[in-house]
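Section 5: illustrative case.
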């Protein structure tokens, strides 16, 4: 028993190498197959749950270790408290693969093909639940590991990241439960070939005139950004970067200037914009003395469009009920935002219709598509300085690449410390600035129109696949029960 739990823990930790920045995308296919074998060999559903929990603990302690960096190194929380909070968070996340393991073993029927479908369904539904429950945390869903050059990325415009995860789990199960059967190997090859073929399908088409865009990365450390004595550092840095790079549109990252929007001198904003349009991340006042995390479009005449972040980060942007004590131990400026409306129109900028998303909103594909197919471009504004030198930045860029593939739209990312990038509709990164370096990324971007199947049905397609995959095992169980 101990050997199985240790093996699961190590397999979970190793799976992280399948994601950015390592990018060994075939690795999750192998580690998941080995996990499924451990589940199949478990004597009871409870033991399968323990194996899933051990896998999840190894996976999340390794993959989201940046939570500790955010709390302790940047947020200033005492080491024991930060370590405990990070551990408890990973324990919570590990419950979802534990639940998947329990469900599989509880419903397994001993038939290779039924159990193959069952385990893929259990896995995907566990990931979907993690991305939904208590506002959700779909970071490191296995589908994200498969954005190019993996052939499985071809399934993303149809079924989204969860659907890609389902196909990955299905292939892992075919390897685990039927590798010696010719039909299993044939089906593996068919799925790979289908993914390759789908990658060559153009779901959307270019529209309108290309627009030049300068994405500004100020690289101002979080420890200095909110120091009132260093306010001029933000002013001077972004003024200089905007002057040195001419483009039709200038984009600043999330809360680039550490003031409420109405506290930023209008003359400074007009100077930044010049004869161009300016997209700025800033905190704005709302009714009832509240404020929102927003993106605003400006030119020399003032603001003419805005977006307010609707999916807020628990503990980072709002205080969940009963957790006010948490903020006595961690220093998070502007940590109680109000949420924007769920349904917001794309912002019109420089002849483009932009679907805005701020910080980790781009984790939620079904929320991004609310502004589609009307929007022709995706833009993300982030301040990833909170995560220091960790895996968070390359992982976040990988997530953005998945959103581009799902929607068939380019994605531009403007960040404070990295990774500022331009992403093509096929998920390839056409240009990126190095992390933790001041710089400007000037690119030419083309809007795209049309709708992928995912834009039209969201996560419904992946959920339908998972539910249908449950049916053979459930029917077999029901038939067996009636005979008894």
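Designed sequence:
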């Amino acid at each position: 028993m101990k050997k199985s739990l240790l093996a699961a823990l190590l397999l979970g930790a190793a799976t992280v190498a399948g994601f950015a920045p390592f990018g060994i995308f075939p690795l999750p296919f192998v580690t998941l197959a080995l996990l499924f074998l451990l589940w199949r060999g478990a004597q009871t559903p409870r033991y399968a749950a323990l194996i899933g929990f051990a896998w999840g603990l190894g996976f999340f302690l390794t993959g989201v270790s940046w939570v500790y960096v955010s709390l302790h190194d940047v947020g200033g929380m005492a080491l024991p408290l930060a370590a405990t909070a990070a551990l408890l968070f990973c324990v919570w996340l590990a419950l979802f693969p534990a639940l998947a393991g329990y469900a599989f073993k509880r419903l397994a029927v001993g038939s290779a093909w039924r159990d193959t479908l069952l385990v893929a369904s259990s896995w995907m539904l566990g990931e979907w639940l993690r991305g939904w429950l208590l506002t959700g945390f779909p970071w490191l869903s296995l589908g994200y590991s498969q954005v190019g050059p993996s052939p499985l990325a071809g399934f993303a415009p149809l079924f989204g990241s969860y659907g890609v995860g389902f196909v990955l789990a299905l292939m892992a199960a075919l390897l685990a439960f039927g590798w010696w059967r010719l039909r299993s190997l044939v089906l593996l090859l068919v799925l790979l070939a289908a993914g390759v073929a789908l990658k060559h399908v153009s779901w959307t088409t270019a529209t309108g005139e290309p627009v030049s865009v300068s994405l500004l990365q100020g690289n101002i450390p979080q420890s200095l950004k909110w120091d009132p004595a260093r306010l001029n550092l933000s002013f001077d840095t972004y003024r200089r970067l905007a002057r040195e790079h001419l483009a039709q549109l200038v984009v600043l990252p999330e809360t680039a200037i550490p003031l409420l929007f109405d506290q930023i001198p209008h003359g400074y904003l007009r100077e930044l914009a010049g004869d161009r349009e300016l997209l700025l991340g800033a905190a704005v006042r709302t009714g009832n003395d509240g404020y929102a995390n927003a993106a605003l479009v400006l030119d020399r005449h003032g603001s003419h469009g805005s977006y307010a972040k609707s999916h807020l980060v628990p503990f980072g942007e709002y205080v969940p009920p009963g957790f006010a004590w948490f903020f006595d131990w961690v220093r998070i400026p502007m940590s109680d935002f109000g949420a924007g409306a769920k349904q917001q129109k794309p912002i019109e900028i420089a002849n483009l219709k932009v679907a805005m998303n701020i910080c980790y909103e781009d984790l939620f594909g079904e929320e991004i598509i609310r502004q589609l197919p009307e929007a022709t471009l995706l833009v993300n504004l982030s301040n990833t300085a909170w995560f220091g030198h960790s895996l968070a930045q390359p992982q976040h860029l990988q997530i953005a690449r998945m959103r581009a593939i799902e929607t068939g739209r380019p994605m531009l990312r403007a960040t404070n410390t990295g990774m500022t990038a331009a992403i093509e509709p096929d998920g390839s990164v056409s240009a990126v600035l190095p992390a933790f370096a001041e710089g400007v990324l000037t690119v030419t971007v083309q809007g795209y129109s049309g709708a992928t199947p995912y834009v039209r049905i969201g996560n419904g397609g992946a959920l339908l696949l998972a539910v249908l995959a449950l049916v053979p095992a459930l029917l077999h169980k029901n038939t067996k029960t009636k005979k008894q």
